[in-house]
TrEMBL record:
Keyword Transcription among UniProt keywords: yes
Name the UniProt record assigns to this protein: Putative DNA-directed RNA polymerase subunit sigma
Domain (DUF1835): residue spans on this chain: 2-108
Keywords carried by this UniProt record: DNA-directed RNA polymerase, Transcription
UniProt cross-references to InterPro entries, sorted A to Z: DUF1835 (IPR014973)
Protein's organism: Paenibacillus agaridevorans
């Protein structure tokens, strides 16, 4: 049996418990940077490698090494009679799950049976963020409660992945109007995905907007901001390295939304935290106050060059996302 899980913490706890089988930790961050329908093509992988190194500090060598290792195990899936996918409700995991379901939907499974364990809460935990919160014993208690993956789950995962990797923004929205109930947590996660796009109100995505609101209400250190963002937008499943990148973008001049006061260096994947960064204070600039109030559009002021899945956002962006009406609004 092969267990595919979403992170090293979960993998280590499964190994510590009485879980039969091999463990494959799937190391990816699909909510961040460019992704494509077929991720195993080198010419498509290279822009992702460059992006993750530039934004999150993940070295190209590390990424390629992990990628090749996990893909090799996946290619040899026929050696296992059963495979269990362990995932949770947030966007981070739902995209990972969709990728794997898309991949398996293109394979001849033969004797291999696919199973899914996917949860969005756990008894006794008020704000369930993920499987990593559970102890080895709690994870062990979940063993065997997984459900068989059938054609409907494979097709749904594949449709989600193909929509998310599309360069057409309308496909990112259309998937919200399709039946994705075979994967019960997908719809809420995908709604939060499109809410990351520039809004009709001021050009900010939900992460940037929420960050400015928190600062206006007195949350003024990087780590407190990350904690509160995690509480308010837990369905994103956003890691610290991605948030530091978003914070860095918001503080870059010209047209910075916020100012980070004090000497500091943003953490990267090699150095998770620095003492100077922990002691910094964050405050809104005049631009930040104006944009947060909806008086100006940040994309119009600053421009944009960003990726969300297969969607690349350029300066000539002609649409915004209206979160109230849940639809695209075109500017010309």
């Amino acid at each position: 049996m092969l267990h595919i899980v979403n992170g090293d913490i979960v993998g280590d706890k499964l190994r510590a418990g009485n879980i039969r089988g091999d463990i494959l930790v799937w190391r990816e961050v699909y909510p961040v940077g460019p992704v494509f329908v077929e991720m195993d093509e080198p010419h498509q992988r290279s822009p992702r490698v460059e992006y993750l190194e530039r934004t999150l500090g993940i070295s190209a060598d590390d990424y390629v090494t992990h990628y090749k290792s996990q893909e090799q195990i996946l290619q040899n899936f026929h050696k296992y009679n059963e495979i269990v996918l362990w995932f949770e409700h947030d966007l981070f995991d739902q995209l990972m799950l969709s990728y794997l379901l898309h991949w398996f939907s293109k394979q001849t499974l033969g004797h291999t049976k696919l199973n899914l364990l996917c949860i969005g809460d756990y008894p006794g935990i008020d704000l369930f963020r993920g499987l990593g919160q559970l102890s080895a014993k709690q994870l062990e208690a979940l063993a065997g409660t997984w459900q068989r993956i059938g054609q409907k789950e494979l097709e749904t995962g594949s449709r989600i992945w193909e929509a998310y990797t599309s360069p057409d923004v309308e496909r990112h929205v259309e998937i919200l109007h399709q039946d994705t109930s075979a994967l019960p947590f997908a719809h809420a996660a995908l709604e939060l995905h499109v809410s990351r796009l520039p809004s009709a109100k001021n050009g900010l995505g939900i992460v940037e907007q929420t960050t400015l609101e928190l600062i206006r209400h007195g949350v003024n250190t990087p780590h407190e901001l990350f904690k509160e963002i995690g509480n308010r937008l837990s369905v994103l499943g956003m890691g610290d390295l991605e948030f530091w990148y978003r914070l860095r973008c918001m503080s870059e001049r010209p047209h910075a939304l916020l100012e980070i006061r004090g000497p500091h260096t943003f953490p990267d994947h090699r150095k998770k935290t620095t003492a100077s960064f922990e002691k910094c204070e964050v405050a809104l600039t005049e631009v930040g106050m104006t944009v947060a109030a909806g008086v100006k559009d940040w994309v119009e002021m600053k421009g944009i060059n960003e990726w969300y899945g297969g969607l690349r956002l350029h300066d000539d962006l002609t649409w915004r996302w209206d979160s109230d009406r849940k639809q695209l609004v075109y500017t010309e």
